[in-house]
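Office hours follow-up: a student asked to see two folded examples consecutively, so here they are.
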Amino acid sequence: MWREGDVRAGQTRFFVRSYGMGAQDRPVAEGTEPDDTLAVLLHGWPQDGSSWSRVAPLLADAGYRVVCPDLKGFGRSDAPKHGYDPPTLADELSQLIQALGARKALLVGHDWGGAVALATAFRHPGRVRALVTVSSPFRQLDLIASWHIPLLNLPLAPQLAFKVAGGPLTRAVIRYASESDEPFDDEALDRYAAAVKASPSGWLAYYRTLSRRALLDWGVRRVRRVARFLPPPEAPHRLRVPAVVVWGDRDRVTPFHLATRVAHDLDAELVAVQGVGHFVHEEAPQELADAILALAGPAASTSDLDTAGPT
């Protein structure tokens, strides 16, 4: 059964859903041993934490305590005007892991959730036991396929559009980006529409902060490749945690050709899920859970993955 509640991390209140062994949404009591069976699943746009409802039970069966927060700016979590830069997002997620009574967590992130998980793994590797990113570009862009990114960077228009027609727009996005309609019944689509309509200015900050940084980084690297008199492109930072990249081979919005480059830059294994679109966690939950457990193993054996202390 899901348990729901609020957890504060830094200046942000996160609405979380917990599932699995000893599921709880509060810190452990003082003097007790921290829980190292935590798995934190981070959703992307245009969804909320409930999108993990098919994956969470599979990880819980492997011994994990699964927590699925609504990201800041989405759903029932706080949506402040500021604080969507990678360091702040990473610091808050690190604090959330601590507030949930764990020293470190298995992080799984889809879309923007993958970007937040990556920022945390780079900045706070001691809080991350293992990392799985799902359909989440890193240092790579395809603005022809991801034509929505420039549109969502426009001033005012996106906020007004999603306030007025958030339901139809959310349905259209999910239908376009997925290969299978089966996971997306009317109840789920209504829930996701409510999550993005709650505070469009909040989640739009991801596009206006993270995507602009990614676009600038991408442009600078392309110029450096052409202009030989400039320093060579900066090499990607190396992850210090075990990682795997999972991608649907029929993803229309973050095309599969990006996947090999992302896996290369992260020095991570790539798992291609056949016949699946952008929403791998809903379209192919068993395949995703298998990839997660192939990397991290069941909760009982996760202590062998990483011995680094928290940062």
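And the second, which I mentioned at the end of office hours:
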Amino acid sequence: MNNNTEIPYESLDPDTILAAIESVGLICDGNLHMLNSYENRVYQIGIEDSQPVIAKFYRPLRWTDDAILEEHQFAQELVDYEIPVVAPLMQNTATTLHHYHGFRFALFPRWGGRALELDSLEQLEWMGRFIGRLHAVGSCRPFQYRQQLDIKTFGFDAYRFIINHDFIPDYLQDNFCNIVESALQKIEYRFNLATPTRYIRLHGDIHAGNVLWRDTGPHIVDLDDCLMGPAIQDIWMLLSGDENQMTRQLEYILRGYREFHDFNNQELILIEALRTLRMLHYSAWIAKRWKDPAFPASFPWFNTPQYWQQQLQNLAEQVSLLDYIS
């Protein structure tokens, strides 16, 4: 098992990648193309006399095998209900999760499509129907091994990691702590107002980059962040623009959503709370990966005084928004 958490993919070279694919009975034609992914390593692999496959090599030590298999099972469950997600292949074995030289990987079919148009109300209503169907399945049973999106996991845990690992410049630390602790207090208040909030299985990261649009509608390509959480988490990241535009977009999304699943309007007060938690979680996510050489190369602006000053400004704006409850 590869236990190097600082350089987790150091030994994942092309020969290892191709040998891993061939270990499950496929014959590679030598074509290997790396796809954009920070958390995992994802490649398009050419296969002799067949269509290319997409291989995802999971970041070592991030998830347990049980958690990864639960992601795969959720994807297959959605496919069984004819909800268009890209599910992993069971290639010549009895499992979708494969092991090779300390790495864990899964294979997926290659899917194409165009970008979701966030300014199209028709497409947003279609996305609402899609998410409603996904949540109708997701609400049938809970995850056992995936994490839960709440103020502890995405808020306090993220905050403590950033502070305990000395990422904040000394001259900003007091201000950062005051603003974050104020934000967390207000987030907790909003979650209490939304009680009882129902936690269901979610995609967890539905944004335009994770949606492929085809003539048959939207398809989801990545369930790597699936988790337990409130339904609004799979909706709010599709909103953009000013308040009037977002209100209009939300109206169309929920119009489609309610055709397939009930929606608790009380969850709307969680939007700014979830946005703030995402900001904290995102900073902590990069911080946790900072010793992986790929991250400083991909995020050169992170961990600079300018970055943390901008974060302070953004969080202060969120604190003001969290004070406002319509």
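Two things to take away from it. Residues 306 and 312 are 10 Å apart (CA to CA). The chain is about 40% helix and 15% strand.
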